[in-house]
Amino acid sequence: MTRDAPALAASRLDKWLWYARFFKTRGLAQKACEAGRIRVNGRRNTKAHRTVGPGDVLTFVQGRMVRIVRIQAVAERRGPAPEARKLYEEIEQE
Fold it and tell me: What CATH number corresponds to the domain at position 75?
């Protein structure tokens, strides 16, 4: 694979959450998905294998905070935190 490979168009929800560093392990991300704690575009989701991509909006609780993020990109691997922050944009709550 070359360094200039095209960006991925979609990813599994649990993988994306782990790559973006919202969960410490992929297993924790998978459990959160299966428990219905992640909303995709406003709809409750119970499938870790649900496909998500740029433009999708995720809503979930992290600690005591409700996070709303719009997916900007899909990664091929779990990189360092600065790289992970480029995968999403925070949406401010009103």
Answer: 3.10.290.10
